Recover the amino acids of this structure.
């Protein structure tokens, strides 16, 4: 149990708890708007940015963030080009990101080990700069969601009605895209680029099973993500397992439990 | 063409919607060509047309969701580009546009009718909650307020969306096929309800419908105007009593009372 009191573990816990608030919150808006795959796409593109960061010696998470932001704009542009096949744009950008990442990996063979930390997460290597960045992103996301909770609800439930009410739809869509890119790029060091989408989507999937109101679903996603992050980190720390993988497996277990409990309820 | 000169001018009869040679094309394919039409205060306008005639496109242009490729639209006398007073318009879109699993209660949906530009940085106030209660009560769905919107029947959902549109006490109600997928009995009740609202409250109606029988029985046998495949049936406000000034609380309460007296059933 020594690991629990160690400094690197406590940093991991702080980072995990903060991401456990923001990732499922943004994920809820994405899932309800049927954009679940965006998280995965932005994470894959971020990895290309991280690889470039290593190659040119600039803070990798920062370069990843810029790549994720660029990807959100590219997706929007492509969505307009393929109006009726909007998901195509997500597939194109995702494979583009992976392709670019693989090119950058081979250009700098020496940093293979550090990059794999970003693929599967390396929460124990969080440093002060990482934590500071995660803290800032958390504050920005919480502020935006608290200020605009009702508008985000209307936009998510019925975008047409939001437009007819005179709400600035483009501003809100832009805000959601930027916040999602921010959250994903700071999350990949914690759960890894290949797993970050689970932290965005599985809590939302759980809330669809149990929440009746929007307010409940906001609370549910955060509670479930926090449960998975804290328990997952403890379990992974004590039994020396991969933290990112443990957190995601726990999320899946929670989802399966909720589904089976609901089935029993509706059967009874 | 319908112009205001055709009927007796009454002080409160302002033009609410004016279309001037409006056209719309989806990627060069014309959907609506050169429609000119105007809706006066307290008119009830029924829009009828076959599938693909452009009825929904027309409504979406009027509520600002689509831009006409040619022509001009004015709302309450103002060009649509400058129009800011969107809370004077209640819009009930076609049913089933939301996911039935969406986690939102009936109360949350009805209350969202209040969220507009003027409310951007404000919290939901006590007065807002009361408005919501009134709208739920008027539509006789207060018992369903805590239920998830997807659990309601088609007719109940439609009343929830009508309550959302009414919560701002709109001067203009725009309804897009409000009774699609609802059983005949419920449909009849719904039409009674909106007819009652038209006769006793200061609301102008624009409704797309496929129900010829209802349209004809209330708006007359012949369309007042036909434009391409779209027919406009109109009941002018001068067919009704004088204009009445009403406020939301008053109208909604009265609506509920008349429903309870058995005049209107949904």
């Amino acid at each position: 149990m020594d690991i629990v009191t160690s400094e690197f573990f406590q940093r991991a816990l702080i980072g995990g708890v903060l991401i456990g608030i923001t990732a499922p919150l943004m994920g809820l808006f994405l899932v309800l708007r049927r954009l679940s795959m965006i998280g995965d796409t932005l994470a894959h593109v971020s990895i290309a940015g991280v690889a470039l960061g290593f190659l040119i010696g600039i803070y990798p998470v920062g370069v990843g963030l810029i790549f994720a932001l660029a990807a959100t704009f590219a997706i929007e542009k492509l969505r307009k080009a393929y109006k009726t096949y909007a998901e195509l744009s997500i597939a194109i950008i995702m494979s583009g990101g992976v392709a670019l990442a693989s090119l950058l990996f081979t250009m700098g063979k020496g940093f293979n080990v550090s990059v794999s930390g970003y693929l599967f997460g390396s929460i124990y290597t969080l440093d002060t700069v990482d934590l500071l960045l995660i803290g800032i992103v958390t504050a920005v996301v919480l502020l935006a969601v608290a200020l605009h909770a009702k508008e985000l609800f209307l936009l998510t439930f019925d975008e047409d009605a939001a437009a007819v009410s005179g709400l600035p739809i483009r501003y809100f869509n832009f805000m959601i895209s930027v916040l999602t890119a921010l959250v994903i790029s700071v999350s990949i060091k914690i759960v890894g680029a290949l797993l970050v989408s689970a932290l965005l989507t599985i809590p939302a999937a759980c809330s669809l099973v149990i929440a009746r109101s929007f307010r409940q679903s906001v609370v549910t996603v955060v509670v479930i993500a926090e449960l998975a992050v804290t328990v997952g980190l403890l379990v992974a720390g004590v039994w020396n397992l991969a933290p990112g993988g443990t957190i995601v497996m726990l999320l899946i277990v929670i989802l399966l439990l909720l589904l089976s409990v609901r089935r029993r309820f509706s059967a009874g | 063409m319908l112009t205001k000169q055709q009927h007796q001018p009454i002080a409160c009869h302002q033009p609410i919607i004016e279309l001037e040679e409006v056209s719309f094309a989806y990627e060069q394919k014309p959907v609506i060509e050169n429609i000119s039409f105007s809706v006066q205060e307290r008119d009830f306008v029924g829009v009828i047309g076959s599938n693909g005639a452009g009825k929904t496109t027309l409504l979406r242009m009027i509520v600002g969701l689509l831009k006409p490729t040619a022509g001009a639209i004015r709302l309450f006398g103002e060009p649509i580009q400058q129009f800011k007073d969107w809370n004077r318009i209640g819009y009930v879109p076609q049913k089933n546009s939301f996911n039935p699993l969406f986690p939102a209660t009936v109360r949350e949906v009805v209350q969202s009718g209040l969220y507009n530009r003027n409310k951007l940085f404000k919290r939901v106030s006590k007065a807002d909650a009361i408005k919501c209660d009134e709208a739920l009560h008027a539509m006789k769905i207060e018992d369903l307020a805590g239920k998830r919107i997807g659990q309601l029947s088609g007719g109940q959902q439609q009343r929830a969306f009508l309550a959302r549109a009414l919560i701002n006490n709109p001067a203009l109600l725009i309804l897009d096929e409000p009774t699609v997928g609802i059983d005949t009995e419920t449909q009849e009740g719904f039409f009674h309800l909106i007819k009652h609202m038209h006769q006793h409250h200061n609301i102008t109606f624009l409704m797309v419908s496929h129900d010829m029988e209802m349209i004809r029985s209330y708006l007359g046998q012949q369309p007042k105007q036909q434009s391409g495949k779209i027919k406009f049936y109109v009941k002018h406000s001068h067919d009704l009593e004088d204009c009445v000034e009403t406020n939301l609380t008053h109208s909604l309460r009265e609506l509920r009372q008349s429903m309870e007296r058995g005049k209107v059933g949904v």
Notes: Residues 1-9 of chain B have pLDDT under 50 and may be disordered.
